Amino acid sequence: MLGEHVSDWGQLITRSADEHRRRGIDVREQTEVVGIDLAAQRVHWRAGSSGAEGVEPYDLLAYTTGAHDVRPDLPGLDLGYPVFTPRQAMQLGGRLPPVQRALVVGGGYIGLEMVEAMRARGIATTLITRSAHCLRRTFDPEMATQVESVIESMQVDFRPATPLQAIERSSDAVVAHTARGEIETDIVILAIGSAPTVELAQAAGISLGETGAVAVDHEQRTRIDGVFAAGDCAEAWDVVGRRWSNWHLGTIANKAGRVAGRNVAALSRGDPLERFPGASGTTIVRLGEFELARTGLLESDARAQGFQIDTQQVETRQIAGYMPGASPLHAKLIFARDSGRVLGGQIVGQRGAGKRIDVVATAVMYGLTLQQLVDADLAYAPPFSPVWDPVQTAARAALQDQSRGSGTA
Amino acid sequence: MLGEHVSDWGQLITRSADEHRRRGIDVREQTEVVGIDLAAQRVHWRAGSSGAEGVEPYDLLAYTTGAHDVRPDLPGLDLGYPVFTPRQAMQLGGRLPPVQRALVVGGGYIGLEMVEAMRARGIATTLITRSAHCLRRTFDPEMATQVESVIESMQVDFRPATPLQAIERSSDAVVAHTARGEIETDIVILAIGSAPTVELAQAAGISLGETGAVAVDHEQRTRIDGVFAAGDCAEAWDVVGRRWSNWHLGTIANKAGRVAGRNVAALSRGDPLERFPGASGTTIVRLGEFELARTGLLESDARAQGFQIDTQQVETRQIAGYMPGASPLHAKLIFARDSGRVLGGQIVGQRGAGKRIDVVATAVMYGLTLQQLVDADLAYAPPFSPVWDPVQTAARAALQDQSRGSGTA
What we know:
2 copies of one chain form a homodimer. Chain A is built from 10 helices and 22 strands. Chain A is 24% helix and 27% strand.
């Protein structure tokens, strides 16, 4: 859409309301739930079109409200074109008026996807981040540095450690005031994060977890009998950090939502419940010619949580070095110092680099060690990989350093 | 080289003889070992250039002679241009004279790579196979059928079940006689397989295994004290088939060779030996716009070995269906009927499809189940994957069929 790959918003919808209706599901569009009465087991709703209100009783309830863009409380920050969030940008899609300059605020995944989309349209783009590095929550600083080289190679004006302070609009431009001076631009995309949508749950008395998202168990049950929750609004178990987390990722929402839906049905039939064991926060994003992927614990998170870890970073290539298109691939592994158990990984490289994180994610989830990663029988042919897959090269280097007693910690 | 990706044979050599010498290794090029005297612990050699002969004593020996192309014993089959093997074709490389027509004999991986290289040069190509399907040893028939659609889409004249019987040369063409008639062509590439090079070992009295390759243990020791073997000439443990096998794959040769080399050094120092646990025969090959990948047991092998299995085949897409470039991906899983343990997998699809086999290979090696594959936290973004990775879609479909009691067996 914004990147002009997809022309129609409707293409992104897997099943339409009518398709759901044909499966016997009573879909009410443009109908907002304005309150949940847990004691009476009913929801209060208001129809967006007519303003009509009503109540709907339930036996079992699934709370799946998702997440919303965070909006900073800063002077001049009334939302609406030319200052908008990624969700609003997606809705604009192909109807984004032609502009020369864009300012993207925030260097998380969504911010980088916005940068990618702006550059694909040939728009001069500035990226500012509050922190010293982009991808602060998903990549360790030395890997983020690799990403920043990519950003700069895309002719993006990247300004780290530059918090936004205010926005000022004139008739023909927008001026962003930052801690490091003014930036004049045509549009501002505020990609500073998203938060679980929990207001209704909170008002009703459905417990939230420490993350601020709805607390659930592995069967997606909330603390209230008969009320399930799943998706960006709910917590999910971090299998490697061993704590409840709140990710806003399609994979996790899809899996947890599926378990919640099936468990609502199972409970109504008296069948055994299914279980969502959790996730490790695996993500991938495309940035220009590059692919960024990660899974599991960051080095900093692992240390903060008291894990005794070492790390290994290698530069190798994503395909056989003599093949056209071979280019540097940076990979980092985080692993338990004693057992060698793999706890996390990050990859930055060109075509074919990113999905390699899947083997690391599988290792992280099922407790595999560095040696088991080295011994895995991964696919090799020159157009696809060096003989030693990059994640194996990293694991092998880590084992060699360990046997030399020179761990990086 | 043959596909014109690589211009110089030397680019394919990881380390030159001089680089080895600088590391203190006494490299003798063009020096053939003509006999191994196990009792006296010495090898007899002959220098190819001078014809000089000599003996070299050893304390420890590594037998790493690799494999050679199989040459059928058929009338008219003197090798030499225009009738040659894949190894000879690679040596010709860029010096392959311009020709109009090529006949590739044999539909294994190497045969398909030859087809790929010929078509990349715009040469009209005929492929004949003895069996009813290509990739008989690596893909189940219904997946091979998908590959055959690809072959035919590349304007290759594919003729299965067409054994070669004789070759006849005239001044300006070659005529191949087959069980189904004559084929006139300019060159013939005989890609009918490779065999472990074991003559020296056999003559010396080093035991071979049931596969005909040198028998080794997990430390790469042969049955003779102080003699190690590794690579295409040696057996390797099939972790899923639970038997010794003989693969001719760079990954396995590299890993086993590394263990053999390190163990020769370790034994000379009295250090503990390393272990090569084995492999599952994971491979990937590019064919036109397509990627073919596989790991573990074939359905037919699994049944022949008495495994109680079911299988699941799905058609999905390699990236989000609404993205440009989205195209069908066929995936098949073979799994234990009772435990759901994943025993093998095969994938055929376009860009980005093939390396997905790595997660299946990891599952196969470490005994993961269908449910664990479904629960793996694999990376998703629209340019890289559907929300459910194709291997997870296959695993999920298998579980659904199982719970409906409708396994395909």
